[in-house]
Design goal:
The chain has seven helices and two strands, in the order ααααββααα. By secondary structure, it is mainly alpha-helical. Strand 1 and strand 2 form a beta hairpin. Helix 2 crosses helix 3 and helix 2 crosses helix 5.
């Protein structure tokens, strides 16, 4: 069995240990499409689902977290839909993924809710996992929704974190 096959059988969506779920992937695609289509008027979920070839029913399940985080607003009615709650250049991708996925941590012991690990305080590799967490979060926060919503616009990649 290849490494990729082994990861797939364990239920990981990506090809590595730090992976995001379909919820994160579809949510980011939804947000980029919304940013591209948002001109002040609400955008229908159906329009976004069709444009991005995403299941509308699944989008309905994930938008609540984005609304609760204050990233999107909704409007009911015949001309209802969704729009950004603030300008796309003020929305960090880390905030979007945290609203969709929860805390972004490579190991459960680093979750903010407390440590389920009985080795807390004695762990010899916490520094490694903390640095991985911080690097992933810093990379996500280095992008705004506006960076991804501009078609064909090159995104300036930041140099690696120096410690």
């Amino acid at each position: 069995m290849t490494e990729h096959q082994e990861l797939s059988t364990r239920g990981l969506h990506g090809s590595g240990a730090v992976a995001f779920s379909t919820r994160g992937e579809y949510g980011v695609r939804f947000m980029v499409a919304l940013a591209r289509m948002d001109h002040g008027e609400p955008v229908s979920l159906t329009d976004i689902a069709e444009q991005e070839d995403l299941p509308r029913a699944y989008l309905e399940q994930i938008i609540g977290g984005l609304r609760d985080a204050g990233i999107i607003d909704s409007q009911r009615g015949a001309h209802g839909g969704y729009r950004l709650a603030r300008p796309a250049n003020e929305v960090r991708m880390g905030a979007i993924l945290k609203a969709l996925e929860g805390p972004i941590v490579p190991m459960a012991c680093l979750a903010e809710e407390g440590s389920p690990c009985n080795r807390a305080g004695n762990c010899t590799v916490t520094q490694l996992w903390s640095r991985v967490r911080d690097s992933v979060n810093e990379a996500l926060d280095s992008f705004t929704l506006a960076d991804l919503a501009k078609p064909g616009s090159p995104i300036a990649l930041h140099s690696p974190v120096k410690h």
